[in-house]
Amino acid sequence: MTDSGNHGHSGNLYAALRANFPSDLSAVAVETDHGLSYSWSDLDRASAMIANLLQALGLEPGARIAVQVEKSVEAMMLYLATLRAGYVFLPLNTAYRGAEVEYFIRNAEPAVMVCSSANAAWVAPIATGAGTRHVFTLDDDRTGTLLEVAAQCSDRHVVAAMRDDDLAAILYTSGTTGRSKGAMLTHRNLLSNAEVLKDYWGWRTPGDPEGPDVLIHALPIFHVHGLFVAIHGALISGSKMIWLDRFDPKRVVERLTEATVFMGVPTLYVRMLAEEGLTREACRQMRLFIAGSAPLLIETFDEWRERTGHTILERYGMSETAMLTSNPYSPVQGERRGGTVGFPLPGVQLRVRGDDGRDCLTDEIGNIEVSGPNVFVGYWRMPEKTAEEFTADGFFKTGDVGKVDGRGYVHIVGRSKDLIISGGYNVYPVEIEDAINQMPGVAESAVVGVPHPDFGEVGVAVVVAKAGATLDGDAIVSELKTRLANFKIPKRCFVVDALPRNTMGKVQKALLRETHKGLFAY
């Protein structure tokens, strides 16, 4: 692994990425689904022009650049420009509306807001009302005021000298409980993670005998997965990206023959499995399929291996830490095991602790805590919350509940806030969901806790049937009674058409709790 690099590139993440571009800058770096090609030189020059525009605004050091735009290569260039100019990138989910955007802008106080033209009429007044001095537009068809102004700027730019611990980005957590928090990530946090993954996942560079990797990028870029893991991975290994502005299973399957790496959330794999074109032949050039952001069903894991001959590599990360663990890439490190998120990455320390603060034994379920160079420095303007989320010896409390098995593989059992305490017993929804998901005709399920006058809390199961199957909620509950201890059995089971999900494919359990909270009213 290379060192985190204070020599020569002054701790700036962009400079470290740029140092790994191929020597032939005219080679294609990004190819879009609309037939456009961008060279490595285009990425460097266009990000230089936008960086010059930002610096010409006279912003103070550490100024935030808030961005809520549709996915485009130009949006990625804006991210790179923000890094190289030494400002802090603040991506916002494109699904956020008025009140949400207003909260983020008032909380982060960005100096610059970039939004799509379609939203400018409502975003601009919110931003200027909160003291943001500059509002630009950027659309996914290479138009907007940001590019018009940047076109007047020089394409030469000296990358800003940064310290390792200077902020590079603030990512707001999805805020399933309480107010959304801004996780502050430094240049070192992001660079250390990119370098570890380059090594751990065997990224092929231009000097490789088989040539560099080619990544299919079909994820949104306002989130760790698409913005950091995917983009940094390709840039730091000089690998071309095939860029899809949105995920289309048929298009991805068609393009697999031109690619070597694909990253997706579990839902994307499920949708690709529904495509007839997904065959071993279609995947013959592929080197690696990576899944994360939500749990991958063992059924999907097995079916993918059967259909394609490839074993999906599941990994685990979060906004506050980037990537923490990964199943092995190389067979030398071990096998990829479905239902686990693999081993802690090099440099990451991971431990499982009971509520009483003692270290858990092998296979004992507890709270996952982590430390390492990738772990964020705290929540934006929330010193008390930051202090609360770290242990006295500097470990971050992830809020995830899990265990480490006898072979060292990490298993995530759920979020601590999803834990159901029923009649004094701890009930882990994922255990019940696994049992339900194994039943014939079940596509997927979610179990949440709701208030109950006798037990404090009880489980409610929400189940989706496979196409063509008919399910009965009472029958599912009866079947569970033959498989699990009585205190774990949900009191009710509902069959629905679909589970509510956020843009990253995570099931929105808070919504399900809200829907069913009055079932056993006091």
Descriptive key words:
single chain, 522 residues, 9-stranded mixed beta sheet, 15 helices, 29% helix, disordered N terminus
Q: What is the topology?
A:
Elements: H1 13-18, E1 28-32, E2 37-39, H2 40-56, E3 64-68, H3 73-85, E4 88-91, H4 98-108, E5 112-115, H5 117-129, E6 134-137, H6 145-150, E7 167-172, E8 182-186, H7 187-200, E9 214-217, H8 224-235, E10 240-243, H9 249-255, E11 261-264, H10 266-273, E12 288-291, H11 298-308, E13 313-318, E14 322-326, E15 343-344, E16 349-353, E17 366-371, E18 378-379, H12 383-389, E19 396-404, E20 410-415, E21 420-422, E22 425-427, H13 429-437, E23 442-452, E24 456-465, H14 473-481, E25 492-496, H15 509-516
Parallel strand pairs: 1-10, 3-4, 3-5, 5-6, 9-10, 9-11, 11-12, 12-13, 24-25
Antiparallel strand pairs: 1-2, 7-8, 8-18, 13-14, 14-15, 16-17, 17-19, 19-20, 21-22, 23-24
Helix pairs in contact: 2-3, 4-5, 7-8, 9-10, 10-11
Short note summarizing the structure:
With 522 residues, this protein is α/β, with parallel strands linked by helices. The chain is built from 15 helices and 25 strands. The strands form six sheets. The chain has a nine-stranded mixed β-sheet with strand order 2-1-10-9-11-12-13-14-15. The protein has a four-stranded parallel β-sheet with strand order 4-3-5-6, with helices on both faces. It has a four-stranded antiparallel β-sheet with strand order 16-17-19-20.
